[in-house]
Amino acid sequence: MKLLFLIDNLQFFRDVFRSTVLPRLLADEGTEVVVASTYSADAIAQEFAHPRLRVHPLQPPPANWLTDLAYSVAKDIYVLERPDGSFAQKRFVEAEQHERRSLAARMALGRALRAMGFTSRGVMRWVEGIGVEPDFDALLQRERPDLVVFSTMLPGVSPWLKAARRSRIPTVLSVASWDNPTSKGPLLVPPDHALAWSEEMKRELMHFHWLPAERIATVGVLYFESYFAAKDLPDRAAFCAGLGIDPACRILHYATGDSALIRCNQEFIRVLQRLIASGQLGEPCHLLVRVSPKDLFHLYKEFEGTPHVTVQYPAGSGTLYGAHKWLPAAGEERERAATVKHSDVILSVSSSMVLDACCFDVPVINLAYDAGLKVPPWESVDRFYAYSHCQPVLKSGATWIVKREAELLESLQLTLRDRSAKQGERRELLERLVGLTDGQTNERWVAAMRNIARQESIPVSKPAR
């Protein structure tokens, strides 16, 4: 079996190199792995080396105007086909900024095309043979892998996937994040198989992307696997000592989000700092601000060394903003797990950190207001809670959704008094969205790859002529 991993994003980089899937795959002497990646070969070599693993550099493919036009039309039709998805909901929110004029015209065109029998999938099939990336096509001809495995549900990977489709090589989507099936829009090149986190995600892939149930394997979340076997993490005293936090203090963990999307990260830090200083929380507390790798680190320099606050930047190098990509350091996963485990409560705007917290049964407070900032509706954090991928969190009752400072104070006081509050709801949310928490995800993921590679009798979709 020969697998080609197409790695162009942080999530899949972590899944491949910070798990045991590669050692498990290569334990079989008949298996070879080819890594085609936009990350540098040197960075990959520092992560993993093996005689049966080869690395090929990838350059971002050039734009193709015809494919771009077809995708633009497909998006308009897709919004009408799946108006209940986060992708459609986000487009309507963003359209508010332009008073909906442009979107209204596009939706009118989409409705006309639908009335004529056009579908988003049909539009993309027409350009499936256009915009194939030649260097990647040549790589496939040299290597002839049994499967091409990828995780990005964004259009940038389509020239590579088109090359695989043209060469009749089956593709496997390993979904990277909880919101991707509902929020990333139409797939330019639908995968032949998919690996889902949970039965919930499997249903989303079937509904939002028309993938057949028999082609979707539910395997769990590679990203969370270490959480369920976190036996070598530092104890609370050692963790606090490493950050200079008094272990007698309760730790309020504020997880930032991308400041390009969330305008009030810094304001929430000021609010929490003020609540701690006021003594209203009932016991000594310390605010640990963990900055997202997708965020701009310099925005948090002002809080370094201020009372009651510690700023933790994720261990790694580079940045996602600019020419370089942020790469997690070798100890980043352990650091992140320890930070979640030893937090007394986690606060964030709507994000996947909710699921990290549930893995360790840590109470979560979701911040659904703008901390006093006056922002237009299309920039308000309240918009996130209308998106479909957030509905399981809201309906589960597993977190506190606060819309003003008085509610924030009340929920903090409650969680600090009783960590077990909403414990049952957190467990149910974990079972629904993460699904498999038995520590066997690596084994299931590898078994799924081998099973798919063996399914020679399953026909691969032929490219449009």
Short summary:
By secondary structure, this protein is α/β, with parallel strands linked by helices. It has helices at residues 10-17, 21-26, 41-47, 65-81, 86-95, 101-115, 120-126, 134-143, 158-166, 180-183, 199-209, 236-243, 265-278, 332-341, 353-359, 391-396, 405-417, 423-433, 441-454; strands spanning 2-7, 32-37, 53-57, 147-150, 171-174, 193-196, 216-218, 250-255, 285-290, 309-312, 316-317, 327-328, 345-348, 364-367, 400-402.
Description:
- This protein has about 475 residues and is α/β, with parallel strands linked by helices.
- The protein has three domains: about 170 residues, Rossmann fold; about 60 residues, no CATH class; about 210 residues, Glycogen Phosphorylase B (Rossmann fold, 3-Layer(aba) Sandwich), CATH 3.40.50.2000.
- Strand 2, helix 3 and strand 3 form a beta-alpha-beta unit.
- The C terminus is likely disordered.
What features would you highlight for this structure?
seven-stranded parallel beta sheet, 465 residues, single chain, Rossmann fold, alpha/beta, 3 domains, six-stranded parallel beta sheet, globular
